[in-house]
Amino acid sequence: MSWLMSLLLNGLALFIADYFVDGFQIHGIIAVVLAVIILGFVNAVIRPIIVFLTFPITLVTLGLFYFVINGITFYLASWLVPGFQVSNFGGAFWGAIVTGLLNWILNGLFNRKD
Length: 114
Known about the structure:
The protein has five helices and two strands, in the order αβαααβα. It is mainly α.
């Protein structure tokens, strides 16, 4: 049941970020659900490869390049999901940051292990 709660909270974070961040749009509930699933897949499979390949850049920038990697994965997910459109890299960058922060806050509030 926790995966369903996590899916709902991730979708809510993505939906809220769509309202606040210019540069990306989500059209419909189905697009939100697909975006959350694809983002989970991209973060689990493709992100570790990108992190490994860009480790020297991340090391030189003292970890700040990791934010760029988040934007890249967000942008990549938008290519794979119809109805999830990212217009530029700034939208992907800020969308990934806002979605990540909202997801962290929402999971902290609602997904507690008591």
